[in-house]
Amino acid sequence: MKISLVIPIYNEEGLIDELIPRVKSALETIDPQFEIVVVDDGSADGSLQKLTAQRKADKRIKILSLSRNFGHQSAFTAGLEYANGDVVAMMDGDLQDPPELLPEMYRKLTSEGYDIISGKRTARKGNKTKNLVTGLFHFLFKRMAHLEDLENAGNFSMMNRQALNALLSMDERVRYLPGLRTFIGFRQGFVEYVREDRLQGEPKMNLSKLLVLAADAIFSFSRLPIRICLTLGLVGTVVFMLAGLYVLAAKIFGFAVLGWPSTVLSIYFLGSIQLIFLGVVGEYVYRIYKESQKRPLYFIKKIYDNEEEA
């Protein structure tokens, strides 16, 4: 079965000359007729030039150059839609996910009856704060979204064509591919590994971007935020009903405390709760708005493959 590997790239010129040879070496052990679909997500450095140089030496490398930076999940989607392999793998371009695991993924997929194989991180090297936040997100998201096979699994994965077609049939504009990949079901397995730190350069997914991605994942797969608002509203109603009864009793029996601090604090507390509720509702409304726009996830500026170059 022909295998395709999808890799999104954004300003990774310092890693490409190591990334491509390592990927090719891993895929050679699976099938010499592989294809590598590299998606240049609007890089502003020399990434595209280095990729085209690699393609001149090996036509199995195909390049999708997007018109601008559309984001990590959109770039992955572009590559997955373009890939034509019977088996399609996806991995980040920063070499934190080792391409040397691809043969083991392929073996499990084809010989053990799995439809999807995901890389499961047993540990992470690098920035401890970032790793702590990422680990906490995976722990909570697994339980909030009721997707039991998701914990510590990111984009690094491999799937057969049937599973990929199911994944691509979901056309959400706000996307979290690991969640969608788990949601579609099928028989899913794992390959465990320790996630490496970046070899060089700054991470493209910094802490703020990871938090945005986490919010997209949570609001797309869980109704817990709105349920928390409902619960807080009910609790607040009960508390202030009891407080009202206390104030009434204090007035009747003459032990009410004079002053305005309790009144002001109550107003500020209720106002803060209402703002939180509006923020949560606004997040859902924003996502509904994005889905209703139905804008394309990406635009391709140029495709480098045999047909285009001919």
TrEMBL record:
InterPro entries registered for this protein in UniProt? Glyco_trans_2-like (IPR001173), Glycosyltransferase_2 (IPR050256), Nucleotide-diphossugar_trans (IPR029044)
- How does this protein lie in the membrane? Multi-pass membrane protein
Asked whether the UniProt record includes Glycosyltransferase among its keywords, one would answer yes
Q: Which Gene3D superfamilies match?
A: Spore Coat Polysaccharide Biosynthesis Protein SpsA, Chain A
Q: Does the keyword Transit peptide apply?
A: no
Named from the GO MF annotations, one term is: glycosyltransferase activity
Q: GO CC: one term?
A: plasma membrane
Read off the SUPFAM superfamilies from this record. Answer: Nucleotide-diphospho-sugar transferases
Query: Which Pfam families does the entry link to?
Result: Glycos_transf_2
Per the record, the major location class is membrane
User: Where in the numbering of this chain does the Glycosyltransferase 2-like domain appear?
Assistant: 4-167
Where is this protein localized, as stated in its record?
Membrane
Keywords of this protein's UniProt record, alphabetized?
A: Glycosyltransferase, Membrane, Transferase, Transmembrane, Transmembrane helix
Q: Where are the transmembrane segments?
A: 228-253, 265-286
Q: Which PANTHER family match?
A: PROPHAGE BACTOPRENOL GLUCOSYL TRANSFERASE HOMOLOG, UNDECAPRENYL-PHOSPHATE 4-DEOXY-4-FORMAMIDO-L-ARABINOSE TRANSFERASE-RELATED
Protein's name according to its UniProt entry: Glycosyltransferase family 2 protein
Species per Swiss-Prot/TrEMBL record: Gaoshiqia sediminis
Q: What is the lineage of its organism?
A: Bacteria, Pseudomonadati, Bacteroidota, Bacteroidia, Marinilabiliales
